[in-house]
Amino acid sequence: MKSLELHLTVNGEEKCWAIAPGDLLLDVLRREGYYGVKRGCETGECGACTVLLNGKAVNSCMMFAGHAEGAQVMTIEGLGNGTKLHPLQEAFLDHGAVQCGFCTPGMILGAKALLDRHPDAGENLVRETMAGHLCRCTGYRKAVEAVLAVSTPPRKVRKQTAGGKR
Amino acid sequence: MSERQVVGESVRRVDGIKLVTGAPAFTDDIHIPGMLYGKILASPHAHARIVRIDVSKARALPGVHAVLTHRDVPRVPHTTAGQAWPEPSPYDTYLLDNKVRFVGDRVAAVAGESRAIAERALRLIEVEYDVLPAVLEIEEAMAPGAPVIHDEPDSTKIYDRNRNIAGHLLREIGNVDEGFREAGLIVEREFRTHRQQHAMLEPHVTICWLDTDNRLVIRSSTQVPYHCRRQVAMILQMPVGRVHVIKPRIGGGFGGKQEMLLEDICGALALAARRPVKIEYTREEEFYMARSRHPQILRLKMGVKRDGTVIASHMRVLATTGAYGSHSTTVQGNTGSKVLPLYRADHLRFECDVVYTNTPVAGAFRGYGCPQGFFAQETLVDEIAEQLGIDPVQFHHANMIRLGDIDRLSAQLGEGKEGLPRVIRSCGLPECVDKAAAAADWSKKRKAKPAKGRLRRGIGMACTMQGSGIAGLDWASAFLKMNEDGSFYLQVGASDVGAGADTVLSQIAAETLGVTLDKIVITSGDTDTTPFDVGAYASSTTIISGGAVKKAAEKVRVQVLEVASKLLGQPPENLDCGGNQVFTKCECRQTIGMADIALHALYKEKFQIMDGASHFNTDSPPPFCATFAEVEVDVETGQVKVLHLATAVDPGTAINPKLAEGQVEGAVTQGMGFALTEELMLDNAGRPLNANFLDYKIFSAKDMPKLTTILVQTDEPLGPYGAKSISEVPINGPAPAIANAIYDAVGLRIRKLPIRPEDVLRALREKEMEVAQ
Q1: Class of domain B36-132+201-252+257-289
Q2: What's the pLDDT tens digit per position in A49-63?
Q3: Quick one: what percent of chain A has pLDDT higher than 70?
Q4: Could you tell me the residue ranges of all domains in chain A?
Q5: Is B209 helix (H, G, I), strand (E, B) or coil?
Q6: Which of A112, B284, B518, B692 gets the most CB atoms within 10 Å of its CB?
Q7: How many CB pairs below 8 Å do chains A and B form together?
């Protein structure tokens, strides 16, 4: 039932895909191999499927692929690769913000959209933004810490940790 | 041994880059040509017999390649609990059955060329049900005349099927009746806990296909690849060697994936269709067709001397396992064995009944029975301390288990059989209490006069413990081989579910071999290419799988030194490893690089440096935890807000402190959800009411209080480099600490979870009425 042509730019590359009218952007991106876009709920609640649509963070499970006609889409695959990482990716690793990693691509893209608009975002704004990304592993502290470390000027989270040495 | 180089360092996780770049690492991140989409028809009834089922229209739908009902599959009683063979859980479950026992139970399964076709096929299946009376409430399950949920004759290991009792336990050390006679104060209370869901971000997903040798390949989000392989082989009546389970990257488990949940039905569909099949739960299905924490009603009675010495504890638990007995007696056994011995009483008695109800199935969930038990015990202790006029911190210090103690209750409550006594060989609990108390500013805040305004603050505490692997039962193996460049290939059956096992195990191997972390290449959790491991549960991976890695690395190290000894002309005992080379320990300081040793071994000696090892412990050293919570109660709305949660944990040695902190922060967040917001609700027909993330509330980044995490490191003799465990124990403390803080704030004793604003408000109103009278 593939009956539409979708033209869009994904991670800087122009694409022309055959899609069905009811296809979700999430499904089309995954079908085309952008597996970093995760399916966590399909109801716009968890944020794991976040991509940047013309620079804005959106839940790709909540929009038809056809609505992305002519758009610039960025997935996590477009942010960095195995040899050169984005500062947010580096910070997530350095701060121990990644556990299972399923929510991580969406969270990093959400943080990028925030910092692109508000490079000086403080903790409250970061937490407000991150509230759209559910994580069941971390308790969010280290992810917030990572985002604040990349904001300008870099900030420290108000929470504290004491790793006792024997 | 020189200073440690890799163990104890907060290195980046070895699997980190693929996760932050979104590399296709998870189960569903592949496309197999010809792959079908599998769906399960879920029962709309809590209890019914399938009188007639007609799948002819579904089979006739173009694009449908398999439709299975109970008539099409082998009938093999089994448990879905991913436990060591022979599993202690009842064999009361069938691939498909002619009876359904909860809303969400399997009725039939289909495989179609798309999700839409599969969903359409489900709607074309005609089912005639004989709807039976259902029992939803724990207290009603054992009553005379209650509907019998497992009336099928071929189920086994059910304690008393006619009374819906899946399992029963009664254990005692000392004599509690005598103990209570000596007590100056006896307090007995009832507590209730609820149905909490795992809510891992990656729902259960399985892809099955037949490989070119006609073997069944199962790529699955599982914590237990080996148990899964054994169980699927039994259910589908295939030799174990014809099944290959691959555990890719897992998107969170928390015990929910210690369960053979989709693998059997997905495998059956793949065999029937002779095509690859994927089944992935939707978020809604994940909420009620997967597993939950066991709801419990606990009665706890404690007797103390007037000086505050605990003499006797008697805990009675009535729990429900839902429609099937997954982990039924073992979870509830833990409620006694890991909780009561926190206090050094001579007399402990634990009894429980685990009943079937026509509700979604409970199973393993981080904490494994302890969050329920500690909620009861630590809130009761707070009340006792108050009645005696003793500060809870002092009460804990005076009564808690300590170094050198022997916990004899554990000897009576093993995994489905007699266990082994637990000897405390490392214990940082007193320091945990003091450090967390200081971080929470306990002495100042506890003394603060209760406020009179709308927002009232209070502070509370709790102490908890857990285990590190199941004593005498959990075991693991590891294999190492050396490559030409001086790197080592590490193969482990252990399953990293996100907690960082691949990193921690690589650190242990690197430390033992004297190489940098980048020289360890790890493969984990593949039943064809990695050696056996029971899997990721019971806080066992670091201590048990880590123990196997250390042993294997020590054996390989001997081989490395033997080859180096020939090259350096020095006896092996004069040599040591470190910094990616072998060096002489004497003044002369000769060195040779690992790569040169590997090349020499492989091409001159014609010898592969490689070895493996197996490991188990006969004891389960407990990690300890102290949790302090400060809350603010809104007396107008009943809303409880946690302001600060300070957690101090003794994990033994933290192999990777940053990963260990992450385990604490994640566990306390789930613990706060258990305490305050998370409950799967059912209507009076057993149908889920809130199977989505909007109505089932897990904490988000902006809901979080201030978190303080303190690691109190000790040296556990039974653990690799002194490590115990950390992932489970911190989940136990938040509920009682928060409940005790609420008492401190507004004088209400909360004994039912979750602590909902409406319950708090109602209780506050009732209290006002009492005061008014």
Answers
A1: alpha beta
A2: 999 999 999 999 999
A3: 92
A4: 4-78, 87-150
A5: strand
A6: A112
A7: 216
The whole-model pTM stands at 0.97
Overall average pLDDT of the B147-165 stretch: 97
Interacting residues of B598 by C-beta distance below 8 A, sequence separation 6+: B482, B483, B484, B485, B486, B609
CA-wise closest residue to B617 among B762, B720, B527: B720
Q: What is the DSSP string of B36-94?
A: EEEEEEEPSSSSEEEEEEE-HHHHHSTTEEEEE-TTSS----B--B--SSSPSS-B-B-
Q: Using CB atoms within 10 A of its CB, is residue B51 exposed (0-12), middle (13-18) or buried (19+)?
A: exposed
CB nearest to A130's CB, from B15, B251, B701: B701
> What tokens were used for B414?
């093993």
Q: Is the pLDDT of residue A166 over 50?
A: no
The Cα B134–Cα B685 span in angstroms is 8
Q: What is the pLDDT of residue B1?
A: 41
Under an 8 A CB cutoff, do B666 and A159 touch?
no
**Nearest CB to A102 within list B13, B20, B252:** B252
CATH number of the A4-78 domain: 3.10.20.30
CA B134 from centroid of its chain's CA atoms: 30
Most A CBs within 10 A among B21, B247, B678, hence the mutation to make, goes to B21
What's residue B589's pLDDT? Answer: 84
User: What whole-number distance in Å separates Cα of residue B640 and Cα of residue B455?
Assistant: 10
Read off the tokens for A104: 């991580």
Domain spans of chain B, in order of start: 16-24+475-616, 36-132+201-252+257-289, 296-470+619-772
Nearest to B265 by CA among B128, B396, B93: B93
Q: Which fold has domain A87-150?
A: DNA polymerase; domain 1 (1.10.150)
Note the pLDDT tens digit of each residue in B480-523: 999 999 999 999 999 999 999 999 999 999 999 999 999 999 99
φ and ψ of A107, to 5 deg: -65, -40
CA-nearest residue of chain B to A102?
B251
The CATH number of B296-470+619-772 is: 3.30.365.10
Distance from CA of B607 to the nearest CA of A (A): 34
Q: Do B16-24+475-616 and B296-470+619-772 fold alike per CATH?
A: yes
Q: What percent of chain B has pLDDT over 90?
A: 95
* pLDDT score recorded for residue B768: 87
Q: CA triplet A87, A90, A95: central angle to 5 degrees?
A: 120
pLDDT at position A153: 83
